[in-house]
Amino acid sequence: MFEIFIGIVALAAYLSYFNAKFLKLPETIGVMILSIVVSLFFAMSYFIDKAFFIEVIEFARNIDFKTILFDFLLGILLFAGAIHVNLKGLLEEKTTVLIYSTFGVLTSTFIIGTSFYYVASVIGLEISYLYSLVFGALISPTDPVAVLALLKKSRSTKTHGNKNCWRIFI
Q1: Positive or negative torsion for Cα 106, 111, 117, 123
Q2: Burial annotation 110-147 (CB, 10 A radius, 16+ → b, else e)
Q3: Angle separating helix axes 27-48 and 144-154, nearest 10 degrees
Q4: Domain for residue 77, yes or no?
Q5: How do residues 110-167 score in pLDDT, each as one tens digit?
Q6: Residue 66 belongs to what domain range?
Q7: Are 41 and 14 members of one domain?
Q8: pLDDT score at 33
């Protein structure tokens, strides 16, 4: 299990380096695009070498993603994101953050839930509106690590009153 964890971290580091050196996209977007390209490479290997493709599939089936994600990666990612938050700046902006996060998630929940309900009905799936809203609530909260990374990198200079919105980040 540890070898798989190290392999995933090494692949992410390589993709991050490749993005920083050549693509120069925001880190989260660049690594995601490169991850999709790597996945497509493995999918296309079916047409080139079926034995390799079957070997990759069997390897992926033996990975305990739940253990890797919850026991290793999630704690590291959340800690790395939280360590860069300036608590004093966050507390000074707590009203704004609370309003935007609450209404943003509620709005997103209703937009995603309603869209899912109507798309499901168009394709012939009978799903209750309440279940669609539950789906919207599960999907709506954004990834805090990705948001922190993008905001910190952009150092947005938009202001709220006379305060800089990005000052909650170190």
Answers
A1: negative
A2: eebbeebbeebeeeeeeeeeeebbebbbeebeeeebbe
A3: 120
A4: no
A5: 999 999 999 999 999 999 999 999 999 888 776 665 666 666 666 554 544 445 555 5
A6: 2-71
A7: yes
A8: 93
Whether 130 maps to a domain, the answer reads: yes
Mean pLDDT of 29-37: 91
The full 3-state SS of the chain, as one line of letters, equals CHHHHHHHHHHHHHHHHHHHHHHCCCHHHHHHHHHHHHHHHHHHHHHHCHHHHHHHHHHHHCCCHHHHHHHHHHHHHHHHHHCCECHHHHHHCHHHHHHHHHHHHHHHHHHHHHHHHHHHHHCCCCCCHHHHHHHHHHHCCCCHHHHHHHHHHHCCCCEECCEEHHHHEC
